Amino acid sequence: DDKVTHVMIRCQDNTYDVGGGEKFDSLSELIEHYKRNPMVETSGTVVHLKQPFNATRINASGIDHRVKELQKENAQLTGKAGFWEEFESLQQQECKHLLSRKEGQKPENRNKNRYKNILPFDHTRVKLKDVDPSVPGSEYINANYIKTEDDGDWPVRTYLATQGCLPTTASHFWLMVVQENTRVIV
């Protein structure tokens, strides 16, 4: 039975749990544990974790409340403001990507990345076409395609997300703009 269900995972004192039971040092450990050992809801329903989906969503109507929450200092635990805690958490998540980003890590491509920890996913990265294939990494630019979902009301759109150009990559950026027939740059 392939159903989707929501499981709230708590993070307290730098450990993760699903409300009672074992505590784990990392989210990955928790997920791996419950993939092997199914959860049982209070109703007795067994929940088999097949494919976790990590999502943090804020509805537009709740943005003011979320900003107020992030502006509070968490003096009890760290004394840091919520924005700083969230930033640190996102930085830690950076290391946990399961999708490959090997092209951006190659020696010939490293100096083309403005931020060394923000690399394009291999499966959605933009590849430059009118380049010399004998030059290693010539097709590389730190950019990804982002497609909107088809919700039936709006057409599917494709966007490009890229880092700000470096002096050495400006020509690659403009090559991508022309290649992809880009109409708007933000």
Automatic annotation (TrEMBL):
GO terms for biological process: positive regulation of ERK1 and ERK2 cascade. One of its GO terms (molecular function) is non-membrane spanning protein tyrosine phosphatase activity. InterPro entries: Prot-tyrosine_phosphatase-like (IPR029021), PTP_cat (IPR000242), SH2 (IPR000980), SH2_dom_sf (IPR036860). Keywords: SH2 domain. SMART domains: PTPc (SM00194). Residues 83-186 form the Tyrosine-protein phosphatase domain. GO terms for cellular component: cytoplasm. The keyword Translocase does not apply. Residues 1-53 form the SH2 domain. This is Tyrosine-protein phosphatase domain-containing protein. It comes from Cuerna arida. The lineage of its organism: Eukaryota, Metazoa, Ecdysozoa, Arthropoda, Hexapoda.
